[in-house]
Design brief:
Mean pLDDT of chain A: 83
Structural class of chain A: alpha+beta
Number of domains of chain A: 2
CATH architecture of chain B: 3-Layer(aba) Sandwich
Strand content of chain B: 5-15%
Protein name (chain A): ATP synthase epsilon chain
Number of helices of chain A: 2
Radius of gyration of chain A: 16 Å
Strand order of the largest sheet of chain B: 3-2-1-4-5
Mean pLDDT of chain B: 87
CATH superfamily of chain B: ATP synthase, F1 complex, gamma subunit
Number of helices of chain B: 6
Number of strands of chain B: 6
CATH topology of chain B: Pyruvate Kinase, Chain: A, domain 1
Pfam families (chain A): ATP-synt_DE_N (PF02823)
Family (chain A): Belongs to the ATPase epsilon chain family.
Oligomer: heterodimer
Distance between the termini of chain A: 27 Å
Subcellular location (chain A): Cell membrane; Endomembrane system
Strand content of chain A: 35-45%
CATH class of the largest domain in chain A: Mainly Beta
CATH topology of the largest domain in chain A: ATP Synthase, domain 1
Largest sheet of chain A: 8 strands, mixed
Number of domains of chain B: 1
Distance between the termini of chain B: 33 Å
Radius of gyration of chain B: 28 Å
Largest sheet of chain B: 5 strands, mixed
Shape of chain B: elongated
Structural class of chain B: alpha/beta
CATH class of chain B: Alpha Beta
CATH architecture of the largest domain in chain A: Sandwich
CATH superfamily of the largest domain in chain A: F0F1 ATP synthase delta/epsilon subunit, N-terminal
Shape of chain A: globular
Largest interface: A-B, 25 and 27 residues
InterPro entries (chain A): ATP_synth_F1_dsu/esu (IPR001469), ATP_synth_F1_dsu/esu_N (IPR020546), ATPsynth_dsu/esu_N (IPR036771)
Order of helices and strands of chain B: HHEHEHEHEEEH
């Protein structure tokens, strides 16, 4: 049995989770990564996606996170997300409206750089949508 | 000398006022609790953000290639003041003290020959500042219809400030708000947003982090976010402070109204008695004359 470590999920409005976890899977900008106790110090930005938390009692909680970063240490993991919603409270509407916003951003983008950023965001959001549908 | 009827009317009207101030005080007290909770809930995020950025910023100290948000544009000719106040009055000196701090700052800058631009968040600050600095005010953001301030409101303001910065419309950005110290004490505060200033934490742990993606990317991702986060925090502290100030102000008003009612009642009773005595004398002396 793996050991537990402290996990905190913080959104600007409130502290969502501050509890023990066995393993947390974070959607990092450069790919998903799992964090367990004793992880090397790591700082990573996150992309829109699903964050999975495995609790000591075996339950797995899922959260939709968007924008922000994760800070992992040997004893603790802190995820600061601009938006964090438990997946069970998340409805398809939210994601769809975000996708719509992103689509508009792609259209409105003035230069290539902004357009590329908006497109990346859009594709990431679409991924989340399909992932949610599948589950 | 006011007649008995006048006195009665005045007492009734002061009582009505007292009822209103009392109700406002209770509403403020209820809202204060919620606002305080919101402000406290937002603290961990802002604090974490600051620690992480401070750690990152140290690495960039004095370097030429530091992001503009960190080292500034190099000039300090044009100043942007973001003045966050409440949307409503009747909260004592709360709005005035924030506006005053901003005004003094603006005066000082103007005296030094700098250009000052002001972005008002909240109507009350605009009302105070427009008297003297109306030509400096570029816009007002109204949050009047907003019931609960969410991160997206702060983010909109933040995005706007960033856009202006990218367009080279100012060199230094300072945020004015009121820090919520306790229910009876709110401290008007100024905080420099751009270039970002971090308190140096000497005891900062010297853990070497692995960065993913690179430090540069993380920093350039986080600095703009930090602006919104700081504005968000300021707005929440403001709401809590406003409610605290309103509660105190309304408490005072209720007490004053009570004193006034007491005084008026005494005058009223004296006059009533005097009138009765006068009528008695008239009857008695009338009877004696017969």
């Amino acid at each position: 049995m793996a050991e537990a470590f402290n996990f905190e999920l913080v959104a600007p409005e409130r502290l969502l989770v501050s509890d023990e976890a066995i393993e947390v899977v974070v959607p990092g900008t450069e790919g998903q990564f799992g964090v367990m106790k004793g992880h090397a110090p790591l700082m990573s930005t996150i992309r829109p996606g699903i964050l999975k938390v495995r609790r000591p009692n075996g339950n797995v909680d899922e959260y939709f996170v968007r924008g922000g970063f994760a800070e992992a240490g040997a004893e603790a993991l802190t995820v600061l997300a601009e938006q964090a919603i438990p997946v069970k409270d998340l409805n398809a509407e939210d994601i769809r409206s975000q996708i719509q916003d992103a689509e508009e951003d792609v259209k409105d983008a003035k230069n290539d750089e902004a357009k590329q950023a908006a497109e990346t965001l859009l594709s990431q959001l679409r991924e989340v949508e399909t992932a949610l549908k599948a589950s | 000398m006011a007649s008995l009827k006048d006195l009665r009317n005045r007492i009734a009207s002061v009582k009505a006022t007292q009822k209103i101030t009392k109700a406002m005080q209770m509403v403020a007290a209820a809202k204060l609790r919620r606002a305080q909770e919101a402000a406290e809930a937002a603290r961990p995020y802002a604090e974490r953000m600051e620690t992480v950025l401070a750690n990152l910023a140290v690495a960039y100290e004095g370097r030429e290639d530091a992001p503009a948000l960190l080292k500034g544009t190099g000039g300090d000719q044009i100043h942007l003041l973001v003045v966050a106040t409440a949307e409503r009055g009747l909260c004592g000196a709360f709005n005035t003290s924030i506006a005053k701090l901003a005004r003094d700052h603006a005066r000082r800058l103007i005296a030094d020959g700098k250009t000052v631009k002001i972005l008002c968040v909240g109507k009350k600050g605009y009302d105070v500042l427009k008297r003297e600095l109306s030509q400096n005010i570029i816009d007002t953001v109204e949050l009047r219809s907003v019931k609960q301030i969410g991160f997206k409101h702060a983010h909109e303001i933040g995005a706007r400030v960033l856009k202006m910065f990218d367009d080279g419309e100012f060199d230094v950005c300072t945020l004015f708000y009121s820090r919520f110290k306790s229910v009876i004490s709110q401290v008007p505060t100024e905080q420099q947003l751009i270039p970002a200033v971090f308190e140096k934490d000497e005891a900062a742990e010297s853990v070497v982090y692995e960065y993913e993606p690179g430090e540069d990317e993380i920093l350039s991702d986080l600095l703009p976010r930090n602006i919104s986060v700081q504005i968000f925090r300021a707005l929440l502290e403001n709401v809590a402070g406003e409610m605290g100030a309103k509660m105190t102000a309304m408490d005072n008003a209720t007490r004053n109204a009570g004193e006034m009612i007491d005084k008026l009642t005494i005058t009223y009773n004296r006059q009533r008695q005097a009138q009765i005595t006068k009528e008695l004398i008239e009857i008695i002396s009338g009877a004696e004359a017969l």
